[in-house]
Amino acid sequence: MNLMSVLKAESLTKKVTSPEGMLTIVDDVSLDIAAGESVAIVGASGAGKSTLLALLAGLDTPTSGRVTLAGSDLTALDEDGRARLRAERVGFVFQSFHLLPSLTAVENVMLPLELAGRRDARAAAAETLGRVGLAQRTGHYPRQLSGGEQQRVAIARAFVTRPAVLFADEPTGNLDTHTGERIVSLLFELNAEVNTTLVLVTHDRTVATRCGRVLQMDSGLLK
Amino acid sequence: MNALALALRTLLREWKSGELGVLVLAITVAVAALTGVGFLVNRIGIAVDNQAGEVLAADLRLESGQVMDDKAIVEARRRGLEVARVTGLFSVVFNGDINQLTSLRAVSDQYPLRGRVMLSDQPFGAPQAAEGNPRPGEVWPDSRLAAALGASVGTELSIGARTFRVARILITRPDQGATFLELAPSLIMNEVDLESTQLIQPGSRMRLAQLFAGPRNEIAMFKEWLEANKTPQEEIEDVADSAPQIKSAIDRSARFLSIASLVAVLLCAIAVAMAARRYVHRHLDSVALLKTLGATRAFTLTVSLVQLTIVGLLAAVLGSILGFGAQAWLVKALSGLLRGDLPAPGLAPLGIGFLTAVAVLGGFALPPLLQLSRTPALRVLRRDIGPPQPLVVLAFGPAVIAIAFLIYWVLRDQRTFLVFVIGLSAFVAAVAGAGWLLVKLTTRFRGGVGVSWRYGIANLGRRRTESVVQLTAFALGIMMLLLLAVVRNDLLNDWRRSLPADTPNFFFINIPPDQHQEFTAFLEARGALHARARPMVRARMTHINGKAVDDIKFTTRRGREFANRDQNITWSDVLGSDNVITAGHWFTPEEFGKPLVSVSTEYMEEMNLKLGDSLQFDIAGETRTAAISSVRDVKWDSFQPNFFLMFAPGLLEGSQGTWMTAVHLQTSNPKTIADLVRRFPSVSVFNVDDLLRQVRSVIDKAVAAVQSVFLFTLMAGLVVLVAAVQASREERRYESAMLRTLGANRATVLKGLLSEFAALGVLSGTLAAGGASIAGVYIARRVLQIPYTADPWVWFYGLVGGGLLVCLAGWLATRSVVNQPPLLTLRSG
User: Fold this and answer.
1) What pLDDT, on the 0 to 100 scale, is given for residue B17?
2) Mean pLDDT, chain A, whole residue set
3) Closest by CA position to B590, among listed B629, B623, B616, B625
4) Is beta strand B98-107 parallel, antiparallel or unpaired with respect to B82-95?
């Protein structure tokens, strides 16, 4: 294994049963991503991008194959073990933001720190919110924020733990072009600052070209 | 962050945003129903007990044929109970040369502890309540004694070594009893005078009674103390022993009320189950997110457990307060129906309601929460993924255990419990099965209806599981309410039938056979409504299957009494409508004149008899043997002459006997009875007006209890149904916004929603009516032991009522869905 490798997939396959029979969504995918690298996974709808992301992040388990994330074999961990690993090493940004509606912006950002047992959560969260330009809105609830602002909170939440790997699933999918561009810029700025490995699923070619490497997925196969 | 902190923080926020409203509402209403019914049952129970206590003039009596020490009295006073004493003995009372064997009752100051002594200025006169007891030197003879002695107020009567002045005439006393053991007329005197009469001599036969009254639980505890500390000669007597009529009314109303409590428990369970489903549905996303961010399964489970516990406790407290308030209001609203005030309730229902809420919450909410914690993190990417399907045992096990425990707790009867649980399971299975089928069928027919109906019915088919769950909840709720209604009608009808206006209020015994015709004519001429007349002979049982009764050890007190005393026996070729043969057969004409006897169930049980046993009697010095040819269940509360032992006709006609009869007489004219006593001096008169009044009053209270508890449970049921509909509100909100965006107007959307609810309501109402009809037969016949009348209206109420009810509940729950601007809904996702 490459010493610089932070995320490695070996012969990763995901099959599901459907009314039409067995479907292979991810087909024998192997990849190796180095620390600090930014990788875009692109492809048409239904190509298996999001499933691959879920497998790489340990949100889902493969039918066969192996994923090594930050030195841990994900396939050897149980659900709680994978959750702990995510708490320590992984950040997420989703298309539909996924903020807890019952928590304020700063509380949402504090959540991963607190789950990891950090005591200085509030100060760190407030600082990161300041970094994404929301210093004045820490006490607002998600429903009081615009879509772009909600995604900034999500980005702050993803970076606040300084994760080894950050997974982003269509982060601009729910935003207008202008806001989307600003969010992507923010994502890359923070990525450079924290030196996080970025794995980004998108169908937006312009977003993809900002990444160091672009992987094309088609019918479950990586090209 | 620890799970508790997150749970509290999000709980507060969800509370503020109204997220938890439905859950709190459902549990609050359920607990309110439960505690409300509990409080009502408790209060009316106390009132009925007090009323019943009148028959004993106390809540509890300790009696003995020997001198009693003051141990029990000292203990009762120490416990703060009220205490009184009665000494009963037989003596001859003289008015000049005229004398009469009399039952003397020397009473202490506090007598009676329950009920009132009624007095008049003349025999059989208009009664007035007595204040206090006879002063020393004064006596109150009853009407029969006064008439027999020709005494009136002011007459001097000699009793033993003393003379007393008649101060008033005794009309009734509360403890004169429903049995006719005391054939002699009676007289009340002050206990301080007893010694000076010199009637108490060593060996004189007397009956001493210590009377106790107080709060129900205190009396129950004191009864336990008495049982442990009394001498073998002392006997404890409570209402059950002395007034079978009242006991029967109390028992039935208590059973009905316990069934009503069960209905409340089940409604509570439905509410909690539906609310927990909604809670789970609303929290799938946040659990998935928390797991994505690194939370373990235990963490997410703790968060939801803490939240639900807090919500549950809060709702239980709110519900208990509401339940208390609601029953207080109900009692006030019904005050016209209840004779006399209801006593303040005890606190027990509070604890019971609370515990039940916790049990139901544990049984019905825990499995969905465990399920919630199994939501995969992957849901953040794929919203269609929910938690894996649970094992059936894990999903339903705790709920079944909780419900079974609660049902057993309420019923406390193994057989009824088993039938109830099996019946309920069968009903739920049948409803769920029928639900699948009906949802499938209605989906198929949706092509032939308008757009609103099609949309509504399509919803039923698409949310198939949800529809079946709702259908089951509705059907179960409506079934329980219908069942309660059916049983309530039967119970009320039975009570109304049991004591019609012309129920006999006078019993006459010792009518000489040669005066029987004349006696009847005398009464009929004075407007008496004639009831049953029966010949009567005194008999003593000597042998059972050839073994001397004296050598047989009977385990119960009643058994010993039956064995040791003379029995009144009769013969007849007709079986009264208040008698039902439960084993063997009634005498056929071929059996007339044969040595056969029909025995009542109590007598069979107390004496350990079985069909075919040979009983030997001493009847006026003559030995007679008869075989038991049938067993009769006697309705002792019919106020008709009834006997433990009835012989075949044509066997005992030659025996030296008398007649007894019961009639209904207007008691406004006291002269009638006074004339009768003078004309037929050997006839003993028993006025049971007072007992009838007591029984009627108990039944009135029981009716009020049944009615108000029914009303209360019905209201609770409606609110629970509304809460059940709330469970699917979110999904409907989104769909309605979509439809309106696509151009549907509000009316179309509303019609769609209502058609879905109407379909659900009619389906569940029909199933419920079927379930209630079947369950009604069992409960009426087996549990309440009353006749069941098939009521076709049940189907109407189920079908139309169910449809309207669920529509109304649906409209209440979803009207805001239709009124909300679509954009707002779609933007908030």
Assistant:
1) 62
2) 89
3) B629
4) antiparallel
Whether the pLDDT of residue A153 is over 60: the answer is yes
- How far apart, in Å, are the Cα atoms of B196 and each of A92, B70, B145? 103, 21, 22
Strands A38-42 and A197-201: parallel
To probe the interface with A, which of B286, B293, B296 has the most A CB atoms within 10 Å?
B293
Q: Does the distance separating the beta carbons of A96 and B294 come in below 8 Å? A: no
Q: Are residues B728 and B810 in contact, defined by beta-carbon separation less than 8 angstroms?
A: no
Q: Which of B501, B519, B518, B499 is nearest to B684 (CA)?
A: B519
The whole-number pLDDT of residue B822 equals: 62
| Residue-wise burial string across A89-127, b where 16 or more C-beta atoms lie within 10 A, e elsewhere | bbbbbbbbbbbbbbbbbbbbbbbbbbbbebeebbebbbe
Is the Cβ–Cβ distance between B803 and B762 less than 8 Å?
A: yes
Residues in chain B whose Cβ is within 8 Å of chain A: 1, 5-6, 9-10, 13-14, 17, 19, 285-286, 289-299, 376-378, 380-382, 828-829
From the list A38, A101, A39, A44, the residue with the least C-alpha distance to B13 is A101
Core vs surface per residue B551-576: b (16+ CB within 10 A) or e: eeebeeeebeebbeeebbbbbbeeeb
d(C-alpha B129, C-alpha B116), whole Å: 6
Taking chain B (829 residues) in consecutive chunks of 10 residues, what is each chunk's mean pLDDT?
78 71 72 75 68 76 83 91 90 87 89 88 86 92 88 91 92 67 76 88 79 84 88 75 63 72 75 77 86 89 86 84 79 56 68 76 82 87 76 70 78 79 86 82 64 68 74 83 82 74 80 86 81 82 90 78 79 86 92 92 88 89 90 81 89 81 75 78 73 71 70 70 67 70 75 80 86 84 76 84 82 72 55
pLDDT greater than 70 at residue A166: yes
d(CA B568, CA A95): 93
- CA within 13 Å, CB half, B573: 11
Chain A residues within 8 A of B378 when measuring between CB atoms: 54, 59-60
Determine phi and psi for B727, rounding to 5 degrees. -55, -30
CA–CA distance, B778 with B784 (Å, rounded to integer): 9
CA torsion sign for B9, B12, B16, B22 is positive
With CA atoms as reference, the chain A residue closest to B18 would be: A102
pLDDT per position as a tens digit, A130-146 = 988 899 999 998 888 99
CB contact under 8 A, B1 and A110: yes
Q: What's the pTM?
A: 0.66
pLDDT the model gives residue B724: 67
Q: How far apart are CA B695 and CA B637, in angstroms?
A: 9
Q: Is the dihedral of CA B215, B221, B225, B227 positive or negative?
A: positive
By Cβ distance, the residue of B293, B377, B829 closest to A111 is B293
Q: Which residues of B touch A121 (CB under 8 A)?
A: 1
List residues bridging with B616 in a β-sheet. B543, B625
Which one of B9, B295, B382 has the shortest CB-CB distance to A103?
A: B9
Q: Determine the Cα–Cα distance for residues B146 and B673; give it in Å rounded to an integer.
A: 12
Torsion region of B575: left, alpha or beta (phi above 0 gives left; psi -120 to 50 gives alpha):
beta
- Give the DSSP letter string of B422-469: HHHHHHHHHHHHHHHHHHHHHHHGGGGS-HHHHHHHHHHHHTHHHHHH
Give, in order, the Cα–Cα distances in Å from A32 to each of A29, A48, A59, B27. 10, 18, 19, 54
Q: Which long-range contacts (CB under 8 A, 24 or more apart) does B70-73 make?
A: B71/B229, B72/B210, B72/B212, B72/B226, B72/B229, B72/B230, B73/B210
0.95 surpassed by complex ipTM:
no
Collect all residues with Cβ–Cβ distance below 8 Å to B790 and sequence separation of at least 6. Answer: B773
Per-residue confidence band for A165, with pLDDT thresholds at 50, 70 and 90: very high
Query: Nearest CB to B380: which of A88, A98, A112?
Result: A98
Residue contact B10–A116, C-beta within 8 A: no
